[in-house]
Amino acid sequence: MKLIIAALKPFKLDEVREALTLIGVRGMMVTEIKGFGLQSGHTEIYRGAEYAVNFVPKLRLEIVVPDALAEQVVDTIARTARTDKIGDGKIFVLDVAQALRVRTGETGDDAI
């Protein structure tokens, strides 16, 4: 199993979720986060004063999938979340040693 962690722009969530559903992803966790990468934040003007915004709002998706589906999930997220502008995000893929569905006791691929 693989844990796929993706940081992406908030307005892309619905489009990414729909694309993942079409390829068979059955669940995901979403967290609102703030961060910065190459863009190092930006400046905004509020009531005539300029402020530095050091952290940009993003969403973090966490998805656990069978090994066979991992590459397709990464490709789908990358293609769907892309805007060709700075700050499109990052995707990380990690190995998952074990998964357990609390309600039924199922483990491994059956738990996801």
Written overview of the protein:
- The chain is of the alpha+beta class.
- It is built from two helices and six strands.
- The strands form two sheets. Strands 2-5-1-6 form a four-stranded antiparallel beta sheet, covered by helices on one side. Strands 3-4 form a two-stranded antiparallel sheet.
- The longest helix is centred in the middle third of the chain and has 15 residues, at 67-81.
Largest sheet: 4 strands, antiparallel
Could you give the order of strands across the largest sheet? 2-5-1-6
Portion in beta strands: 35-45%
Average predicted confidence as pLDDT: 90
Structural category? alpha+beta
SSE string: EHEEEEHE
InterPro entries: N-reg_PII, N-reg_PII-like_a/b, N-reg_PII/ATP_PRibTrfase_C, N-reg_PII_CS, N-reg_PII_urydylation_site
Organism: Pseudogemmobacter faecipullorum
Keywords: Nucleotide-binding, Phosphoprotein, Transcription, Transcription regulation
Subunit structure: Homotrimer.
Give a quick set of tags describing it.
112 residues; 22% helix; two-stranded antiparallel ribbon; 2 helices; 6 strands; alpha+beta; elongated
Element layout with pairings:
Layout: E1 2-8, H1 13-22, E2 29-35, E3 42-46, E4 49-53, E5 56-65, H2 67-81, E6 90-95
Antiparallel strand pairs: 1-5, 1-6, 2-5, 3-4
